[in-house]
Amino acid sequence: MKLSRSIAMLAGVASITLILAGCGSKSGQQKKTITTSTDSELTTVDLSKTTAVGTFNVLNNVDEGLYRLGKDSKVEPGIAKSSTISKDGKTYTFNLRKNAKWSNGDPVTAQDFVYSWRRTLNPKTASQYGYLFSGIKNADKIQNKKAPVSSLGIKANGKYQLTVTLEQRIPYFKLLMGFPVFFPQDAKTVNKYGNDYGTSSKTQVYNGPFTLTKWTGTNLNWTLKKNPNYWDKKAVKLDDVKFSVVKDPSTGLNLYNQKKLDMAQLSATQAKQMGNKKNMISRKQSSCYYIALNQKNKAFKNLKIRQAMSMIINRKMLANKVVGGGAIDTDSFVSKGLAVSPKNGTDFTKDATAPASMTYNPTEAKQLFKEGMQEVGIRSLHFTLMNSDTYDQKQLSEYLQSALQQLPGLKVTLNNIPGRVILSRQADHQFTATVANWFADFSDPITFLNILTSTNPSNISQWKSATYDKLIKASNNDDGNNADARWDDMVKAQNLALQDQAIIPLYQSGEKWMVNPKVKGIVYNTAGANYNFKDASIK
Q1: For this UniProt entry, which residues form the secretion signal (predicted)?
Q2: How far lies 446's CA from each of 156, 279, 365, 475, in Å?
């Protein structure tokens, strides 16, 4: 998932900053409100079109799929009250709740899931997440315009039973069902608003614990309000969750110190200054921030130039002193702590092998860069590095500019812009070089590795390798039923991508927070939509 999934979605998005506060209410009773700040704007709440982490966090609370993901990504009942799986693992039958409703009062039906999945996969929608449906019957053919969307392996058996047919077992299928891309959509609402669908809180309906209110599409404040039509509304303890965009972490900390906020994310500098202060917590993120070089560019087609740019970056310094806030230096695309080997429980990053270009070596980097420039036939190189305009990402951009300009003949200009703009430009490949990020959609390495395949719309660097594509295809198809073989495919794929410097991994993000102990029950998962407020409360 792209920042915004941070720069992730890129700008990802970097990471969403949440700051929570309890508010007073009328009649002397405490209003059960959490007030939250975020460093990125909402761009859309159309689940077929978004790629932003911040938006997925909103969708995870205002909508609901067949399952919800609880603590540690545990699969819990959602709209499906029960399900059965065929012996070959290729057919799932879901029995839906008859008391599930949309916020407009309409029932949530099996047809709403059929419509939503078909809409997302329809090439006309241009969703960047259609590839997640791979393995569901005819999904790949539909993506490649070789089959009609009506042939997708999902069928409504009346109003409250749904059957999904797979082409092969999908080891992570239930985790996918808890990700917002697989949630239902109300066709009546989509048709009513047309191109305006999901561009404001009023042009959408909701079936989750909360509804989205007070978002015009361009403003920097919005509210999640308890949904009176939610089937499990008795379990929802909060009245609302209020968001406002705050891009300067010093502002958030000041509000926390003034007891106007219950939870504030710290910048790297703040975290260092405060040490291990009471009520400070760390939150790891299954993510990778990286540099994407547009490989349609003549210079960036050269492997030595790409390797030199990777080798000149001191990742340990970058993570600890520039980014901070719990960031982890990494020589991997797949994040640490996401998944372990079925053979021996080894973390994926330990099984994979990082190439020499992922190790800081300025002397070798300068030599490689000279050789690459000679091969391309140029004496100097000047490009613009695009990144988001959040405080931390500006700091990162300045460090990268300084590091990269150590290479002889290289000049880097910075362009830090709002998240909604950067995501659009990345999707359209309107950049020469950009800082990007990817946040895991579920707890499996393939959530990272899929995006570097040659036809994936999130492959913004436009790197291509037939061998890589074959390895990923094998992991999703032929070796899908063999856990060991599938793992080996994925390890080989990452090794190949980094050896060829498809992207330049920088760091795995983390967050340092000051949290008031009165805030309870927020479920935070490192992969997928991170925040689940259904069971949250404030004393």
Answers
A1: 1-21
A2: 29, 35, 30, 8
Res 9: pLDDT: 34
Cα distance between residue 45 and residue 210, in whole Å: 14
State yes or no: pLDDT of 329 exceeds 90. yes
With CA atoms as reference, report the closest residue to 498 among 460, 454, 457, 465.
465
The CA-based dihedral angle spanning residues 495, 497, 501, 505, taken in that order and rounded to the nearest 10 degrees: -80
pLDDT in tens, 396-450: 999 999 999 999 999 999 999 998 899 899 999 999 999 999 999 888 999 999 9
Q: At what angle do helices 362-376 and 303-311 cross, to 10 degrees?
A: 160
Q: What is the CB neighbour count within 10 angstroms for residue 362?
A: 15
Binned at pLDDT 50, 70 and 90, residue 11 comes out as very low
Confidence band (pLDDT; 50, 70, 90) for 2? low
Give the per-residue pLDDT at 255: 84
Which residue from 518, 511, 513, 512 is spatially nearest to 33, judged by alpha carbons? Answer: 518
- In the chain, the domains with their CATH numbers are 33-242+516-538 (3.90.76.10), 287-510 (3.10.105.10)
Residue 535 in this model has a pLDDT that exceeds 70: yes
Which H, E and C letters describe 272-341, residue by residue? Answer: HHHCCCCCEEEEECCEEEEEEECCCCCHHHCHHHHHHHHHCCCHHHHHHHHHCCCCEECCCCCCCCCCEC
| Average model confidence (pLDDT) across the chain | 91
3-state DSSP helix/strand/coil percent for the chain, to nearest 5? 35, 25, 45
The pair of three-digit structure tokens given for residue 180, joined into one six-digit string: 């917002």
The DSSP H or E segment spanning 93 is: strand 91-96
For the CA atoms of 483, 488, 494, 500, what is the dihedral angle to 10 degrees? -150
Q: Please give the single-letter amino acid code of residue 438.
A: W
Does the reported pTM lie above 0.85?
no
User: What is the C-alpha to C-alpha distance for residues 427 and 408, in angstroms, rounded to an integer?
Assistant: 31
| CA-to-CA separations, 114 to 108, 117, 120, 189, in angstroms, rounded | 11, 5, 10, 15
Least confident range of 337-351, 404-418, 441-455, 506-520: 506-520
Alpha helices (runs of H) in 1-109, residue ranges in sequence order: 53-62
Q: Which residues contact 316 (CB under 8 A, 6 or more apart)?
A: 329, 360
Query: What tens digit of pLDDT does each residue of 271-304 get?
Result: 878 877 888 988 888 999 999 999 999 999 999 9
What are the CA-CA distances from residue 163 to residues 1, 63, 111, 175, 184 (Å)?
A: 27, 21, 11, 17, 14
The alpha-helical segments, DSSP class H, found in 355-503 are 362-376, 391-404, 419-427, 446-449, 466-476, 483-499
Q: Does residue 523 contact residue 70 with C-beta atoms inside 8 Å? A: yes
Q: Are strands 240-245 and 33-38 parallel, antiparallel or unpaired?
A: parallel
Closest CA to 537 of 29, 28, 19, 34: 34
